[in-house]
């Protein structure tokens, strides 16, 4: 199947109020263009350098999502270019985002990434540290939290469901509280292998790479 067919198939499976992010990491501009022609406007990248290169070369009406781990020293390169940062997970990073965005008079829209599976090899904040990070967000003037994001551990359907449901519970709890800088609009979870499960557990934003573009080949260059 080609990229356009994959996109159309997924769009037919999911309802209109769910945002489909085409995860285009490692893909060429020609491949992104095929997705764009099929109607894709939300693209996800995980590396800052690859992301900034693509922003330069690609359509200006695209909404770029930074879905990978973000290092503090890279924040300065992304100001004004990202629609949504999915990977806020610590206070030091928050402070750097606040500083660099404020300096340019811009607002950073972010999701807090939660390490819901407590996997030591994954980024994301642990649940018990969430409150502290949110309090810090409340003190910011240039950061708006729009929701939460996770990458869950690999596992069977039951295990996926359990983690997605946990995320939905956190999302609903946060949505009930009154914050000035934190509003639950996006629950970003679900990838190629598990997006249907994620949606059935409440995701309204899914990030799909291989299901759209085919298997990723990591080249050594
Ligand atoms: C690569 C990636 C995806 C997409 O994964 P696929 O299995 O290709 O759909 C989603 N989210 C994050 C954070 C990623 O790094």
From TrEMBL:
PANTHER family: PROLINE SYNTHETASE CO-TRANSCRIBED BACTERIAL HOMOLOG PROTEIN, PYRIDOXAL PHOSPHATE HOMEOSTASIS PROTEIN. Pyridoxal 5'-phosphate (PLP)-binding protein, which is involved in PLP homeostasis. Keywords: Pyridoxal phosphate. It holds the Pfam family Ala_racemase_N. It comes from Clostridium ganghwense. The modification N6-(pyridoxal phosphate)lysine is found at residue 25. Belongs to the pyridoxal phosphate-binding protein YggS/PROSC family. HAMAP family: PLP_homeostasis. Residues 3-215 form the Alanine racemase N-terminal domain. The keyword Protein biosynthesis does not apply. InterPro entries: Ala_racemase_N, PLP-binding_barrel, PyrdxlP_homeostasis. This is Pyridoxal phosphate homeostasis protein.
